[in-house]
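Reviewer 2 asked us to include a model.

Predict the structure of this chain.
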Amino acid sequence: MKTSLYCALCAVSLQAGVAEAQPEAGQQVTRAGSQTPSTGPVEYFTGRVRVDPVWPANAHINASGGVVTFEPGARSAWHTHPAGQRLLVMSGVGLTQEWGKPVQEIRAGDTVWCPPGVKHWHGAAPGSAMSHLAVTGTVNGKNVEWMEKVSDEQYGAR
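Predicted model (structure tokens):
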């Protein structure tokens, strides 16, 4: 089965199918730069976003991973994850918000747990790019439910 990866990454969220099971012959190494990055689709992101796939969900680990880089002011649309998502901020300063709660600033080294079904968004702060590693669980081949875009007013509410 072919796996496609879109974030959002959380996130980014990421959208990935379950990849074919790999033979259990030992460790496998995927070389840095060997996977093709993609641009965050305009339907799900505001601003420039780059998604670098790290690993797909498979029969052994039912979660995909990807590094998502948001340019200053870029952000995801509102979304949920059926099995949740964990983010590790790797660089820069970002913002995240759960529906109905205040916007929170996130910085390099911070982690974010997005529980299953919780409506949220994440992205870069206005004056800083931000990259995070998104680890996203998959249910029935799906790991994200995209919703409406985050308005400029919602993004700026701090």
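Helices lie at 152-156. Confidence is low (pLDDT under 50) at residues 1-21. We have added this to the supplementary material.
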